[in-house]
Each structure stands twice: as structure tokens, then as C-alpha cells.
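pinned: reference chain
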Amino acid sequence: MGAFDEGDTGGARTAGAGPKPRGAGDGAAGPEAKARAAVEAQAADGAGGARKETALSRPHRALTLGIVSVVLLIAFEATAVGTAMPVAADELNGIGLYPYAFSAFFTTSVVGMVASGQWCDRRGPLPPLMTGIGAFAGGLVLSGTAVSMWIFVLGRAVQGIGGGLVIVSLYVTVSRAFPASVRPKVLAAFAASWVVPSVVGPLISGTVTQQLGWRWVFLGIPVLVVLPLVVMLPPLRRKASGPPPGAGERSAESAEEDRRRIRLAIAVAVGAGLLQYASQDLRLVALVPAAAGLALLVPSVRALLPRGTLRAARGLPTVVLLRGMAAGSYIVAESFVPLMLVTQRGLSVTMAGLTLAAGGASWALGSFVQSRPGMDDRRQSLARFGMVFVTFSLVYAPVVLVPSVPVWTLAAGMAVGCFGMGLVISSLSVLLLQLSAPEETGRNSAALQLCDGLSNVLLLAATGAVFTSLGGGSVTVGAGHTAQGADGGQPSAFVAVYAVSAVVAFGGVLVAGRLRPKELSAA
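pinned: its C-alpha cells
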């Protein structure tokens, strides 16, 4: 399940870092008292308005329905495409490139996220949202008509650019168009919109794949773009179009900074792509692209993320870091579930996809729990408990490789992980919006999503290398879209994938204790 939820006076406001932060932290540094004032203002807003307004109150209803429709589209795409992916990769003779089908999306989404953040802060969320939806649909068409695995991967890359533009603009829309007391409820509605696609998406996708072919899964989804556009355009124009308050006139220096950040985002994408390429080539020569990827990636990421992110500095830097650890560990592991069940347990693609169906409801339940009144003071604990649940689900997942273990237990375990993700992702999103100045919400949201997408790419590179080295690239899917008997099994390759993901998730349990700024933690 994808997590499309993703700079930075927030870094200065939360950490009291003194010097002006780099990249996502380009806002002026201020004392920690500003963080306290910002959070108290949010709380006061919530106290005054929580009893009167909901996401479906008359002033917010149309826009809520519109943007939730967009998330519904993204959710259906993620569940349907994930179910059809093993068959697509097999028929295009690209099982060895299976991780690329996911990492290409996340790699290029980095550029879309950074561009969207700047675009939103300059002109509002409407232009990047519309552009992103168009690119998203175009990428689906390209993948659906692919004649080789590399063209399929290219389509996923185009789709990633669109996804990056869309998700950041949605976050900015929530910040611009809804009061603080309503935002947790809107984010909970985002999670709830995954429920129906999670249940019917794998069933529809599996049926279409087996009866009509996997291509129709990709080519049919763009039709769904029309309805969200019709529903959300009028209220979005009224409530969140145009430059944000406080944006002011952009100087030549600001324009150059925007261009610099785009160049850095491209460097991140290229660097991540080189690492992914190197991870699939286990020869010594692969060290060359790996070194080049790191040389591009490390300085660019340090410049784009809030100061202190990589060392888990208190406040917003840890919010951003934990988002990456949570999303990377769970989403990467989840992406291997259909392939594992089809090739190791002999399930059909439909049944393999349905093992993830309960995740949508439990994710929504976790997000609903964090949206309840009185939860603002408990977000650090919510995030920590959520990461405990995620870690448990990843540790349990490879147990289903034992033939005597019922497959339904994996569905239950992944549902537990999804509940934890609902707690973590929504809580982190609320914290980000609380700690962002209006004119920098786009950049902060881009930093959050950047860490999310980048962690997916890096973990796919790491798990892909391990998966390939242990023979995972040799697994096959039969003509009936089930495993080719026992010779298709490489269980150790899947065990290694989940081991890596579980270690990262457990690191998130430890990091979660640093979410609150130092001053607020002591208060």
C-alpha cells in the first residue's frame, strides 16, 4: 500500500538550531519559543473549532470529497498495479528487473516532489496538481503499452514524476484550505480512502489480469482521472489557488535558489538510479556506478533535507527522517508480498493480492485513532507504538514461507503493520503541518516526501542486491499466473528482504523518541 502523504522554517522552529538551515531549512532560524507558540496556536485553533467543524462541514465538503477522490485514484492504482506486477514482469522477461518497476517510480518522484514544493510556494497547489495528474495518467499508458521491461520501467518513471507533483500539492492544499482542527480528520479521510481499493483492487486487478491481460490494468486506470478533476477544481480554485500568504515578491536570488534545488533533486534521482543499477549487477565493476551514485546522492540529500535530518535532530528533522524509515521499511517489504506468494506458495495473482486487502481498513483505523480529540500531546507515543507494530509485521512476514503456515496469517500480520503505518504516517503529517510557516509548507512537505521516496529507492537497491545475490531473479511465474512448481522457489532471497526491512523499522522505534522539540519535550 502506497503512502502518498510527502523546506524549512520548521527545522529552525523545532530545533532552535541557530544558523540558518540548508535546503529544506532555508527559513530564518528562530528561538525554540517560536515552536512552542506555533504548537500552542494550533492547539487553541483545535480547541475552538474541533467541536464545530469536520472535514465534511459545509465549508469544506466539496474540497474534501475532491481531494479524497484523487487519493482514491492513487490507492486503486497502487493496489491494482502491485497485483499485476509479477505477471507483467514475467511476460516482459523482466523478473530480474522487478525491483526497478517500483524504484523507478520513487526515484523520479523525487524531482516531482521538489518541483511541486517550490511551485506550490510560488503559485499555489493548483498548477502542480493538474500537471501531476496528467503525468500520472500518461505514465500508466506508457507502461500499459510497453513491449519490453525497460519501456515498462520508463512508464513507471513518468508516473513517478506525476505522483511527486500530486502528493506535495495535496499536502499544501490541506494546509491552505483547512483549519488546524480539521487537518487530522482530512488526513484520516485520506487513509480511509484506501479501504475500498485495498479490498476490491486486488480482486479486480487479478481478474482482469487473468481474463484480459495485465495491460488492461494499466490502461483502464487513467479513465478514473476525469472524475476527481471535475469534483475538485471549483473548490480548489476558490480556497487554495494563488500564492500563499507571506510569499511576497520573488527576487532573482529566490529564483536561482529554486533552480539550484531542482538541480539537486535531479542529482538525487540520478544518484539513486545509479545505486539501483549497481545493486542489480554483482560484478566488481558495479562499484563504479555505485560510487558515482553516492557522490551525487549524499551532498544533494544533505542540502535538500532539514539540517540534522541524518542525525535525527529533535523536531522536524526527526519527523522527516522517521517518515522515510517507516515508509521505506514497510512499502518495500510489502511490494515483495505478491511475488513471494505466487512463486513460493503457488497462489494465483488474485489470491496473492487479496492477502493485502485487510491492510486498507487497518491503515484507516490507525489514522482514525490519531485523529481523535486529545491526541496532539500523544503523537510521539503514537508514532513509537506504530513502529513497533510495523516491525512485528515485517519480522513475521517470511514465516509464511514455511509450507505448514497458513497464508491467512500473513494477511493478519500485514494488517497489524498497516495499523501501525496509519498511526505513524498521519501523526507525522500533522506534526509537519503544525511546524510549517504558510509560505514554506510546500518546501517542508517536499522534504517529507523526498525522504519517503528516497528511502524506498535506497531500500529497494539494498534489498534488490540481496534478493538477486540469493537467486531471487530466477523465480518464475507460470502461464496460469502461479509458481512453476518447486523449482521456482528461492525462499532465502525473500527472507533477506524482510530481514533488512525489519532492521530499519526497529531503528524507527528508537528514533521516534526524538519527534518533539527539546523545549516542548521538557514542558
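why pinned: Residues 120 and 442 are 6 Å apart (CA to CA). Residues 61-91 form the longest helix (31 residues).
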